[in-house]
Write a structure and sequence with these properties.
The complex is a heterodimer. Chain A is mainly β. Chain A contains 1 helix and 32 strands. In chain B, a hairpin with a 2-residue loop joins strand 1 and strand 2. In chain B, helix 10 packs parallel to helix 12. The chains are: A mainly beta, B mainly alpha. The interface between A and B is large, with 46 and 49 residues.
């Protein structure tokens, strides 16, 4: 066959192979970034996408007590959470998980899904759950990428009137985890609107939603000034909003890149990173920047403060120990094989606990400025 | 028309290749590809989205057409080389029959190519140049769609810090009832599935308008098989990919159909080629070219003859006869 014909036949084949290869790259596959949750000596964490484990911690690492889903249980085979971005909710004997697939499941205390014995599984929501759910008494709230806000019962996952069964339709996709404080539910949308609803009544509490003029992908409530909302946007601005009135408290702070995280707080100063790789220490009362620290890579994960050290993790997989007072580097440790650090860091027993995107767990010691991998044994 | 001497063109290509190798060696392939191709494309896509009323579907369509037209000189060169090769096929067959010694056969074929001013791998150059652009185009659309939180996180690293671009994020995924971020399912009858059908149809239309020379029965069978295999294969891909990527494929295929018709014409509808009509060739050397849409009837009655000077334009017929003797 002449070369030109071979080329003609080869071209679509090459394109096809390239398409297939790109499908295998998986740069956009949902993997989740839920932060670990501690309960005594047990840590609950996602070890791989939607594989949820309870791990008993010991001196060297931890032993998995159980893993969900258990391949041997037929009842669990129909559940597909795909990936989980929000923390698990602990409601009495139940553990509620909300997945990117839009499915939710309530497990029993021992991590088993046994229908009829407190467990339930629901897949009746529109869109994907990104920000995770928020617990508020006997109910939980979450938003979806199809612009809907749901309030459901933790008992059976059913909707609670007056909240619509198909969710309350807002003006944009909901990626942030709603915040529930004092009977009020705050929720931000990717079109930049921030709403406040009565958790019981479902009624809007502000005269009009606050407009942040940038996608709100995360949200935090700060217990200062009678209640202040920390509203970061993907335009790189951070607004402080009065929780009672829904009005901005001054002009927004402008960061070096997207802000998609919650702050670590100490004495009225918010410490948070941005996608420009800069960590900011922002005095909320005055709007003054106390210091900035260059992490060098995007900072998505919420940092923690232990003693006089701020510990942050960046997307390059490096853990930074930063002097809280002056913003100077005490140490920086690159974690080999951790992947990216996107899940928020958690403080427990004087250590900062870090979960990388590769499912490995680490503890950072602010005293010795070192980081250790905590090997989890007994995983399937 | 300004004609660039072949040696000058070769020199420019050589300098370009050396420069590219130097850049790749310095920054690495991934960084060169990302900074040089992918990032500009992603940002252009976001700008188009902003300019076209926040419709990502329209942005994909405009973006695909724009990139295909920018790379049209490369496409045209490839198509013209292919056409010239096709016109030379009868002579190639003649050489293959006449010479049994592989070395001699190769020499004669190269001579024939040289005399016709055709480079046997000339159509591959533009093809190779276009390939990274097409791949970047595909990646840009897939990356910009941000079908997961991780994808949106990754996207931030590709965006320029211009306020116009930053304020356009996130992008609207819905387009005339199609969720561009989601794939299709054969179990759900919706517009996402329609786009998969269009993927198949546009791929089929593209192969239908691509003119191929049926050198022998085996090649003809292969070509006909590919005409049906490719649409099925791409429909299968369409089921796995987000509909935004499928939309890109549909648009790029229809643009290719347009380019094919402009270059080769479309005998079934009596449309002649609009660019670079082929030169005349003596009847004995005329290549009976069959458009792949021809079917049995057109095989019996060639709908069109492509004729070109297989011996070059500067040599007289007498000289050619002498050479053949």
């Amino acid at each position: 066959m002449p070369p030109v014909h071979r080329a003609k036949l080869l071209m679509p084949v090459i394109v096809a192979v390239a398409f297939l290869a790109s499908a295998c790259v998986g740069f956009s596959e949902p993997r989740g970034w839920a932060a670990p949750v501690f309960d005594g000596d047990t840590v609950y964490l996602f070890v791989d996408r939607d594989e949820f484990a309870a791990v008993e911690l010991d001196e060297f690492g931890g032993q998995a007590r159980w893993v969900f889903p258990d391949g041997d249980l037929d009842s669990e085979s129909e559940i597909d959470l795909e990936a989980v971005y929000g923390p698990p909710l602990f409601a009495g004997e139940r553990i509620v998980l909300a997945g990117f697939s839009g499915e939710m499941v309530a497990l029993g205390g021992e991590g088993r899904f046994v229908p009829g014995r407190g467990s339930w599984h629901r897949d009746d929501v529109h869109g994907a759950i990104v920000g995770g759910a928020t617990l508020a008494g006997d109910r939980f709230a979450f938003g979806t990428t199809e612009q809907r806000l749901y309030v459901r019962s933790v008992v059976d996952g059913a909707s609670i009137p007056p909240w619509p069964k198909d969710g309350l339709r807002l003006d944009g996709e909901i990626w942030s985890q709603p915040v529930a404080v004092g009977g009020v539910l705050y929720v931000g949308t990717m079109t930049g609107k921030l709403y406040a609803f009565g958790l019981e009544s479902g009624a809007e509490l502000w005269a009009e939603p606050f407009d942040a003029d940038g996608a709100i992908a995360d949200l935090a409530f700060l217990d200062i000034g009678g209640g202040t909302l920390f509203v970061p946007t993907l335009r790189g601005e951070v607004w402080l909003v009065d929780a009672a009135s829904g009005r901005a408290l001054g002009a927004p702070f402008t960061a070096e890149g997207w802000v998609w995280t919650r702050p670590a707080m100490r004495d009225g100063v918010a410490y948070f990173g941005d996608f420009g790789g800069i960590v900011h220490a922002l005095e909320l009362a005055t709007g003054r920047v106390r210091w900035t620290y260059d992490a060098g890579e995007k900072v998505k994960a919420q940092g923690v403060i232990i003693g006089e050290t701020l510990i942050v993790g960046d997307e390059g997989g490096t853990v930074h120990f930063v002097d809280l007072e002056r913003g100077l580097r005490k140490n920086a440790v690159k974690l080999d094989g951790a992947g990216k650090i996107r899940a928020g860091l958690v403080e427990k027993d004087g250590f900062a606990w870090i979960l990388g995107t590769e499912g490995k767990l680490y503890s950072a010691d602010p005293e010795t400025l070192t980081v250790y991998e905590r090997e989890i044994r007994g995983l399937p | 028309m300004i004609r660039v001497p072949q040696r000058t063109g070769l020199g420019i290509a050589l300098i370009g290749a050396v420069a590219l190798i130097f850049v790749i060696a310095t920054f690495g392939f991934t960084k060169t590809f990302t900074v040089g191709l992918l990032d500009p494309m992603i940002n252009l896509l976001v700008i188009l989205n902003h300019a076209l009323w926040g419709s990502f579907g329209l942005a994909v369509i405009a973006f695909t057409i724009l990139v295909r037209f920018v790379t049209f000189p490369l496409t045209l060169r490839q198509l013209q080389q292919t056409r010239a090769m096709q016109a030379l096929q009868p002579r190639v067959q003649e050489i293959q029959k006449k010479f049994t010694d592989p070395k001699r056969r190769q020499e004669e074929m190269m001579k024939a190519y040289r005399e016709a001013g055709v480079n046997p791998i000339g159509c591959l150059g533009p093809l190779v140049l276009q390939f990274p652009i097409l791949i970047a185009l595909f990646y840009a659309i897939r990356q910009t769609l941000a079908i997961s939180p991780e994808a949106l996180d990754n996207l931030s690293g590709h965006l320029y810090s211009w306020s116009y671009i930053q304020s356009a994020i996130p992008l609207e995924e819905s387009f005339i009832g199609i969720n561009l971020a989601e794939g299709a399912s054969i179990n759900v009858l919706n517009l996402n599935l329609l786009i998969v059908v269009l993927v198949g149809f546009s791929t089929w239309a593209q192969s239908k308008t691509t003119v191929m020379v049926a050198t022998d029965e085996r090649a003809r069978t292969q070509q006909q098989m590919m005409q049906w295999m490719l649409p099925i294969m791409f429909m299968f891909f369409g089921l796995s990919f987000p509909s935004g990527v499928s939309l890109y494929w549909v648009v790029t295929s229809f643009v290719s159909v347009g380019f094919n018709v402009v270059t080769y014409g479309f005998p079934a509808l009596n449309i002649p080629p609009l660019i670079g009509k082929p030169a005349e060739l003596p009847p004995s050397q005329a290549a009976i070219v069959e458009s792949s849409e021809g079917g049995a009837e057109s095989r019996r009655r060639p709908s069109r003859e492509l004729r070109t000077s297989a011996h070059g334009t500067r040599r007289s017929k007498r000289k050619n006869r002498r050479r053949r003797a």
